[in-house]
């Protein structure tokens, strides 16, 4: 069970603004690095919320001109300003964010300056739809991006050199890498989802079953199950050991499945619609048991804490913009001691 608690954001409710033209765009704007540390976007501010201190702190203001601190010869690095963040990811001490005009921003959490930023494309509206931070099989940290220009790009997370780029036949809306760093799920403006090699971009298998465009994906920690979310209001589960057909189909209520997250122990899968509904599935019950969270407003992102004890939901509503925390309830039983 999940017990709900509203995190009170003093002075931020009314200042969380997303233009109406963007409220239904792809986004993942909430990321928890612990039960007490959450990163999220509030208008042009990337914020850190501490539930222990009960206060927030601005980590980065993307309305101002951003000048990268790393300027290496041949680097794609360039200044950006007034970036409307479309997606983000946090891993270890690195924050990576993408923008609605194709921007990419990479910042170390404990450093004041932005290490790297650039515009991935020159065309307008080539949104950076998805970013992922992962460890390659070699152990090296990598950053992967997906854009409306039908391209997935791979960067070294140390010097931010562009290592490779993979072209597809449709706009890429989402990417997610497998736990072992060998495979990447590529989803976009096509009913077919693809599994590709992270190093070469070679397509290994196509996943057929969805009826419309796809927007989200997540890997079970065991690396065997992939969840994909689609405009057809369903999430499909795929067993990578047998990709001939989906393992199970999970149904939403009204809208596309815009965000998917597994807990780090693999026990629960969270599935978010564009607004109002987040569904929690018990994986140990074969995904047959579901708890529905019915809230009000556009959902800006979902994230489990690494210890699995909390689920954070961002609400990007003009009036009710807020960050919600849902705590995991456990049933404890004790064995009587007999002396």
TrEMBL record:
| Species, as recorded | Arabidopsis thaliana
Where in the sequence is the signal peptide annotated?
Answer: none
Q: Which keywords fit this entry according to its UniProt record?
A: Repeat, WD repeat
For this UniProt entry, what's an example GO CC term?
Answer: Cul4-RING E3 ubiquitin ligase complex
Q: Which domain of life is it from?
A: Eukaryota
Instruction: Tell me what this protein is called.
Output: Transducin/WD40 repeat-like superfamily protein
Gene Ontology biological process terms from the UniProt entry: cellular response to hypoxia
Instruction: List residue spans for each WD repeat.
Output: 207-248
